[in-house]
Prior knowledge:
The structure is a single chain. The chain has helices spanning about 1-5, 10-20, 25-40, 40-45, 50-55, 60-65, 65-70, 85-90, 95-120, 125-145, 160-180, 185-215, 220-225, 230-250, 255-260, 260-280, 290-320. The chain has about 325 residues and is an all-alpha fold. The chain has 2 domains: about 25-150 and about 315-323, no CATH class; about 155-285. The longest helix has about 30 residues, at about 185-215. The radius of gyration is 19 Å and the shape is globular. The termini are far apart. This is Quinol:cytochrome c oxidoreductase quinone-binding subunit 2.
Amino acid sequence: MAAAAWQGPALSRAWLVAFGVWSCVPVGSMMLLLIHSLTGGRWGEESATILRASAALTSVVAIAFLPILVNFGQLYPWAHAASSLAQDVAQRYLNGQGYAFRAALALCGWWILGTTFALGKMRPLLAGLGLAFYGAMISLVAVDWYLSLEPRYVASAFPATIAIQQLAAALAFVAVFAAPSLDESVASDIGALLLAALLGVVYLEFMTYLVAWYGDLPDKAAWYLKRSSFVWTAIIVLAFVLGAVLPFCILLLRKGRRSRHGLQSAGALVLFGSTLHFDWLLVPAFEDQVNVVVVGTGALAILSVGSMLVGSALIPEASHVRS
């Protein structure tokens, strides 16, 4: 049974979940570089080394998506059962060719933006255009990659939730790894930004649930019912308490934001909560949930260790080009 978990659909599904969690930091770091190019601020200057090294990994994000693209037929019900979709949706949008084209466009664009800004070639005009491009692409691929696992469920706020989750994960990553080198003022700024992103994720997730509850539509109810078992309820409660409430309490206090250990603790909790949140969003769509979680944890560890090794090699170069 253990061997079977490492092959076939379970492996493809686990890789998708691991990819969703892991890719938040590189893509979110790219976004932060774009935002800082427009807004300025010491928070971006002091965390530039880590942000640039992480944003450079958008090239690895594109490569890591290839197994998903090759095996998408094992992941999505619409890939082998067009009857799961309205006919016009299947013909004009959610099909293999459209899925591959939108993924390639998004990943190549993010690769170019991440690499360009990681090398310090920052221009406000490019940053503005890049953020507009990101907004358009995340609105498409968040639905393609994650929401279409259960294609009858629709949530207009879902892409925004994923986008802010990526920002929160990148800021949490900075909080964990850059905190020792930050002075109190910059640490407080990073903590405040992380607090805002954290509130954004919680607000959008809660409002999505509230609208679905008031609407009381069968497809939305079915999506939430899959996530209402004792185990999945416990996981989302744990994600909320450890990944949102505790970091909120730490970051709400000025002393907590300015403290190296406070900022690192909040960042680590947010990263852990983000992982649980993605598990809650994606894994209940599959039948072999235990295998997906177990194998997905291993895949996430491989991706994380590999990207840390690559990122640490990029840090000296990022410091050299730092403006």
